[in-house]
Write a structure and sequence with these properties.
By secondary structure, the chain is α/β, with parallel strands linked by helices. It has 3 domains: 6-130, 3-Layer(aba) Sandwich (Udp-n-acetylmuramoylalanyl-d-glutamate--2,6- Diaminopimelate Ligase, Chain: A, domain 1), CATH 3.40.1390; 185-301, Alpha-Beta Plaits (2-Layer Sandwich), CATH 3.30.70; 307-407, Orthogonal Bundle (Arc Repressor Mutant, subunit A), CATH 1.10.10. The chain contains 17 helices and 10 strands. The protein has helices spanning 6-10, 13-17, 59-62, 66-78, 97-106, 119-136, 148-157, 164-173, 196-204, 233-244, 263-282, 303-308, 313-337, 342-351, 356-363, 367-381, 388-407, and strands at 20-24, 35-38, 52-56, 83-87, 110-113, 183-190, 209-214, 218-225, 250-258, 295-298. Strand 9 (250-258), helix 11 and strand 10 (295-298) form a beta-alpha-beta unit. The longest helix is centred in the last third of the chain and has 25 residues, at 313-337. The protein is elongated. The relative contact order is 0.09.
C-alpha cells in the first residue's frame, strides 16, 4: 500500500476544519508525506529529513524582509519538504507575495490555513494516519506479522531509527497512553509464548498500563506505573511477577524511566530487560533461587554482570579470565585440588555486607563451617576479606568468575527477543 499523500492529508477532518487553500504546487498533491511537524523556527530547515509537511503560525515571517522569506522557502524545498502550511489571520494577516512566488517557482505546495485549529490536533490525526498506513503496508515479513504492538516493541528494543512523534503515535494506536509523570519499566519473560504472566502481574499493580507481545523466544512488555504509585517501582514489579508468574519462568526487569524522557529512555529499559534476561539464563546465579517458583531478577541486581560484559560476552572473555586469575588464582588452584566452594562463599559473603549470619543462612551451612571457609580464603589470598579497600576488587572478580563459567555453557536457543 502506498504512503499517505498530501492530498489525503488535506482530506483529514482537522485539516479541513482549518479551511486550507492551496496557493501553489497543485501538481504535487500526490507526493508522499512522511511526517507532519509544527515549528516556528525560521533560521533554517536543518531539522527536516525530507517528506515532511510543515505547519507554522507565520509569526516569524511577519517582520522578516523579502529575501529572508524567500530564503526560508528555498531551504524548505531544498530539504525535500512535502509542503508548507501557514496560518493566516492572527500573526500573519495575509500570505506574503514573495512567499507565494518562491513556492510557485520551486513547485513547493503552499497552503494558507484560514481558520485556527490547534496544530496538535492536525499533527496527531495526520501522523496516526501515516503510521497506520505505513504499518499496514509493510512488505518485510517479520515474525509478528501484522501485530503493531509487537512491531513497536521490537523497534524500541532494537533501537531502530525512530523519532518521538512516531513512537507516541504508534503507542496511541496500540492503546498505550502513559500519563504525565508515569514510570516506565521494561520486562522480558522467558519460558512461555503467552502473555498471561504479564497480564496477571499488571492486575496486581493497580492502575498500571502495559504494552506487551509474545515473540518466538520470549515475551516483551513495557509497563507504565502511575504517578500515584508509591515506593520502589522496580521492587513492586518484581513482587508482582513473583506472585503472578508460573514456576520455571525467568523474568527480567529493566530500569525505571520517566515516560516523558523521550523514546530513547523507553528503548533503554527494554534493552536492559533483554540483556538482563540473557545474563540470567546463561550466567550461574550468585545465590540459590527460590524453589518451585519463578526466577525474577532485575537490571540493577545484575548491574555488575552487565557492566563486566558491556560490548558482548565473547568480546570480554579473555579480559575477564585474566581478571579472575589475577585476583582469585590461589582459590581456583585450591578448588581444583579439593572439593570446596570457596569462591561462591566469598561472593555471597561480600554481597551481603560480610554478615556471617546472612551468609551462612543463604549457603545452608552452620556459622562455624562458614568461619572455617573464610579463614581458608584469607589464608590462601593472604589478605583480610573485610578490608574496605579490597571489597570492590574481590566482588568484581568473584562475579567475573561466574560469568566466565557461564560462557562455557550451551547457548540458550530462541533467547533473543527480536532479530
Amino acid at each position: 500500500m502506498a504512503a499517505l499523500t498530501l492530498r489525503e492529508v488535506l482530506d483529514l477532518d482537522p485539516v479541513r476544519a482549518s479551511e486550507p487553500r492551496l496557493l501553489t504546487g497543485r501538481t504535487a498533491l500526490d507526493r508522499p508525506v512522511r511526517w507532519v511537524h509544527s515549528s516556528e523556527v525560521y533560521e533554517g530547515a536543518n531539522f527536516l529529513d525530507g517528506g515532511e509537511l510543515l505547519l507554522t503560525n507565520g509569526f516569524g515571517l511577519t517582520d522578516a524582509d523579502e529575501e529572508v522569506r524567500r530564503r526560508y522557502v528555498r531551504e524548505l524545498a531544498a530539504r525535500g519538504a512535502a509542503g508548507l502550511a501557514v496560518e493566516i489571520g492572527r500573526s500573519l494577516p495575509h500570505m506574503p507575495a514573495e512567499v507565494v512566488d518562491e513556492a510557485d517557482r520551486l513547485g513547493l505546495p503552499l497552503l494558507a490555513l484560514h481558520r485556527v485549529v490547534p496544530f496538535v490536533r492536525i499533527t496527531e490525526a495526520a501522523n496516526r494516519a501515516i503510521v497506520a498506513r505505513g504499518l499496514s503496508g509493510r512488505s518485510v515479513v517479520r515474525p509478528w506479522g501484522d501485530d503493531h504492538t509487537a512491531a513497536l516493541l521490537a523497534d524500541l528494543a532494537d533501537r531502530a531509527a525512530l523519532n518521538q512523534p512516531e513512537v507516541e503515535a504508534r503507542s496511541a494506536l496500540a492503546g498505550f497512553h502513559p500519563g504525565p509523570g508515569a514510570r516506565l519499566i521494561g520486562v522480558s519473560v522467558h519460558g512461555t509464548r503467552e502473555t498471561g504472566a504479564v497480564d496477571r502481574a499488571v492486575r496486581l499493580l493497580s492502575g498500571a498500563a502495559v504494552l506487551r507481545a509474545a515473540f518466538p523466544g520470549d515475551v516483551l512488555a513495557l509497563l507504565a506505573l502511575p504517578t500515584a504509585a508509591t515506593g520502589d517501582p522496580i521492587r513492586a514489579v518484581q513482587d508482582a511477577f513473583r506472585a503472578a508468574a508460573d514456576p520455571g519462568l525467568t523474568v527480567a526487569v529493566g530500569h525505571a524511566v520517566d515516560a516523558g524522557g523521550g523514546w530513547l529512555r523507553w528503548s533503554d529499559t527494554l534493552r536492559a530487560a533483554r540483556t538482563t534476561l540473557e545474563l540470567a539464563l546463561t550466567v550461574p546465579a550468585a545465590e540459590p533461587s527460590v524453589p518451585d517458583g519463578p526466577l525474577v531478577t532485575s537490571a540493577r541486581a545484575l548491574a555488575l554482570e552487565r557492566e563486566l560484559t558491556r560490548g558482548g560476552v565473547d568480546t570480554n572473555r579473555d579480559r575477564l579470565a585474566r581478571l579472575v586469575q589475577h585476583t582469585l588464582g590461589p582459590l581456583l588452584a585450591w578448588e581444583a585440588a579439593h572439593p570446596s566452594d570457596l569462591v561462591r562463599t566469598l561472593e555471597v559473603h561480600l554481597r551481603h555486607g560480610c554478615s556471617p549470619t546472612r551468609t551462612a543462612s543463604l549457603l545452608h551451612i552452620g556459622r562455624q563451617s562458614l568461619y572455617q571457609r573464610l579463614e581458608r580464603i584469607e589464608s590462601l589470598l593472604g589478605l583480610e576479606i573485610d578490608d574496605p579497600d579490597l571489597l570492590g576488587e574481590l566482588l568484581q572478580a568473584a562475579c567475573a568468575h561466574r560469568v566466565v563459567r557461564g560462557m562455557g555453557a550451551t547457548q540458550v536457543r530462541g533467547l533473543r527477543t527480536v532479530a
